[in-house]
User: What shape does this take?
Amino acid sequence: VNLPSNHLPYYLGALLLCGIFHEFGHAVAAAREDIRVQAAGIFVLGVYPGAFVDLNSADLALVSPARRLRVFCAGVWHNTVLALGAILLLIRPAWLLAPLGYSNASGAVVTWLAAGSVLSGQQGLYPGDVIVRVNQCPVVSPSGYYNCVAGVFAAEQQGHCLHRGLLLPAASHPPPLSSSGTDFCCRHGNASSADSDPDSASRLCFLADGGAASACLPARAVVEQQPACARASDCPAGAVCARPAVDNVSRLVSVGHDPARPALLFLGEAPELYYSLALSEFRPPALLPLWLPAAIDTGMRYIVSLSGALALLNAAPCYALDGQWILAALLDILIVGDAKLRRTVYKSVLTAGTGLLALDLLLALRYLYYY
Assistant: This one.
């Protein structure tokens, strides 16, 4: 209902793996307790993959309640262990990726770019590039990249130190050609979202002294050759801190990357820098793909979710779940000699557990369809 279509293989694969691991736990525990496994296999019900184990009921009846309890709890235990193992791989992905030859990139490796994105192109990014800075903010990981972008757009537009002789009084320029202010002193302006001109000819209006002075200059030359500043005091004598004339939600951003090509110059809003690319912290070896670390991460997240859910669900005292047999074995251990009391407690707890599970499913469906 709510999964991206490209996540369907992860979902079905994780579901099958968790089911097999669950039933494998029952089979191993049964073999340990000398209980025969009559049949085992996998099935597909519609699109739902699953697994099953058929244990010999006569052997189960002959062993003690404690031994039966081990067999019935084994599926829950194996799902719990599987979920914990997937959590460890999410925390330490290098344990799995390092033996395959992946290395930490000390930056954010670009693994995907949206088709037609202004971030790609001759002076832009390519899959395999390692982003190392956003403006003056160093990037050492994918999360660091997003933090740097957030910081850039939360702060005032970064300025650059320009010699005062480059600036003219604003009154000497023609009136602005657009309400955004980006064409304030550049008749031909920069109409694109990224500076992709290899000759660095894309020009922007730079304002200083509160807008009283301005200059129309090549954006790349200013960003790459002039020191960055936040205020006039950051600049040497004879220079002023000039900022690009952009609207309140846009920023001129320099994204530095390795290999050492000219930095990407981006002029636009934050969502383009957030959602037009995918990043990883691992650099692949020659024969392995860029996308494998992200695929493993996604798969581990599904395994954590589904294996944990199977463990919790099967531990619940409900009809047709492992919890039904776990409850019966527990009561055989705890209530000895009073079969009537044991049956009463068994039916009461099982009915209540099944009713609560049914109520939970109804509330989930109500939330799904009404919210």
